[in-house]
């Protein structure tokens, strides 16, 4: 295994040296073009803070500065001229209008969580001890909360990474991590650490062979001055960008906050406009003789200003305004406010579009109107969240589950898997109705000879959420004799006894 790791490391180092030579050549070409006056308008590379890349090294994305310099029209509506940067996204995350989206999505994806179980309906009893120990280790590692923050981190910045910290591998971060029983044994897993993308940048990736599976996928990363192999980082990107734009986004995806930016800015502008309109929706004035004032008379100007200030200070329902009935006239213009609530509602509804989150989940706003209901929207949203769980979160949890098995038992059992619980939770009445329907179905199957009582009892005993979990499936009670009720049986038994007497 050490020889295989050494050969793999030598192969990666050779490819890295080729990449560095290509980097120098592309930089030289770019500098020659700049000196000759050749200019392009395109995407800007992500800013990498000092200390992320080791001294004397250059990030791998530097060689793609010319690749992403395609000409575009920055005046196109909703066109993002470039990655807006981690500092801007961090500032946006302080706003409630942005936070409510990624917090709601992350909580929904981990709300009902899941369970570790045996695949293919295997017998869980033989795995009871293993499953309990795995669940306890997951709680010890705080996997559920870590995944929730993992999702939030990705939705804020477009990329999030979990570093797998292995005991005794402090000096082996740059070599591949083989998750199997040959490379890792009991007690190998130390912890999982969440890393924000501002502290990482690729150090090497394949940009030459478009047919290779690792094309434009970093195999190594710089993490605050250290080179870390991609196998040791669980990278989460839920909204990837095309290959041409990956260097501009520091090999992350587009942030949910960046997608929401035009919608939130419209909403905030609408709220400010409505607030300003309500503040000054009423215009009050007095038609009076202004000839003396316009002629420049100081006394007239002074008296007019004093009178207007007095009116403004004493204006109210309990005060009185006196006018000259022949020379003056009071007027007031009010701006209609009847449609402002509709404007606010429409602008607010648009904020939910990028994340596909129903308003009742996002903002707690229930639909209004006759027979209005959000049940259909909630069902569609649950299907969307379930798809996100299976596509992006499950691969991460599967890797964590394998590491935990190696840490606890020194081997990986492919029968042990992680499954998500249903997002829809039934209330007590719905559970009772469901149990009633299942009971009627089971009774029909038993009477028709399709199932036996033992098979139905075995299913009830395995149902951990049911009221009959853990009952003895083989201890089937005897049915009442003669097909009568208990009371009739007692009467029949008494009648038979008296005849015998």
UniProtKB/TrEMBL annotation:
Biased composition (Acidic residues): 464-478
Organism domain of life: Bacteria
Region called Disordered, residue ranges: 461-501
Database matches in Pfam families: Phage_portal_3
Stored InterPro entries: Acb1-like_N (IPR024459)
Anti-CBASS protein Acb1-like N-terminal domain span: 88-443
Protein name per its UniProtKB record: Anti-CBASS protein Acb1-like N-terminal domain-containing protein
Organism: Snodgrassella alvi
Lineage: Bacteria, Pseudomonadati, Pseudomonadota, Betaproteobacteria, Neisseriales
């Amino acid at each position: 295994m050490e020889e295989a790791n050494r050969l793999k490391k030598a192969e990666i180092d050779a490819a890295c040296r080729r990449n560095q030579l290509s980097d120098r050549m592309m930089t030289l070409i770019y500098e020659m073009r700049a000196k000759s006056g050749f200019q392009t308008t395109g995407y800007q590379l992500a800013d990498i803070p000092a200390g992320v890349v080791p001294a004397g090294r250059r990030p791998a994305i530097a060689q793609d500065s010319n690749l992403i310099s395609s000409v575009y029209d920055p005046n196109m509506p909703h066109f993002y001229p470039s990655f807006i940067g981690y500092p801007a996204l961090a500032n946006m995350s302080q706003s409630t209008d942005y936070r409510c989206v990624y917090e709601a999505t992350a909580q929904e994806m981990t709300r009902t969580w899941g369970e570790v179980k045996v695949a293919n309906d295997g017998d869980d009893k033989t795995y009871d001890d293993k499953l309990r120990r795995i669940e306890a280790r997951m709680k010890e590692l705080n996997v559920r909360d870590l995944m929730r923050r993992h999702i939030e981190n990705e939705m804020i910045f477009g990329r999030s990474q979990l570093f797998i910290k292995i005991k005794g591998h402090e000096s082996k971060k740059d070599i591949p991590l083989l998750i199997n029983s040959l490379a890792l044994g009991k007690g190998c897993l130390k912890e999982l650490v969440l890393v924000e993308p501002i502290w990482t940048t690729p150090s090497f990736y394949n940009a030459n062979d478009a047919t290779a599976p690792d094309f434009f996928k970093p195999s190594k990363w710089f993490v605050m001055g250290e080179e870390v192999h991609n196998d040791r980082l669980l990278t989460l990107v839920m909204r990837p960008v095309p290959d041409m734009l990956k260097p501009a986004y520091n090999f992350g995806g587009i942030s949910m906050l960046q997608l929401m930016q035009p919608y939130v800015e419209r909403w905030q502008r609408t709220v400010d406009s409505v607030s300003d309109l309500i503040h000054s929706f009423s215009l009050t004035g007095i038609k009076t003789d202004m000839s003396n004032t316009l002629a420049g008379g100081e006394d007239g100007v002074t008296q007019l200003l004093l009178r207007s200030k007095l009116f403004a200070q004493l204006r109210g329902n309990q005060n009185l305004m006196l006018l000259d009935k022949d020379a003056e006239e009071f007027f007031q213009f009010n701006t209609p406010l009847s449609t402002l609530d509709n404007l606010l509602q429409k602008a607010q509804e648009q904020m939910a579009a990028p994340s596909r989150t129903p308003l009742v989940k996002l903002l707690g706003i229930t639909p209004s109107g006759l027979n209005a209901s959000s049940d259909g929207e909630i069902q569609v949203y649950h299907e969307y969240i379930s798809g996100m769980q299976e596509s992006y979160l499950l691969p991460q949890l599967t890797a964590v589950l394998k590491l935990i098995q190696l840490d606890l038992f020194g081997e990986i059992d492919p029968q042990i898997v992680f499954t998500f619980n249903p997002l829809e939770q039934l209330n007590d009445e719905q559970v009772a109705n469901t149990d009633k329907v299942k009971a009627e179905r089971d009774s029909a199957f038993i009477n028709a000879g399709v199932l036996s009582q033992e098979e139905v009892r075995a299913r009830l005993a395995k149902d951990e959420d049911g009221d009959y979990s853990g009952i003895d499936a083989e201890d089937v009670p005897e049915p009442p004799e003669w097909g009568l009720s208990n009371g009739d049986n007692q009467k029949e038994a008494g009648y038979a006894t008296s005849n015998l007497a």
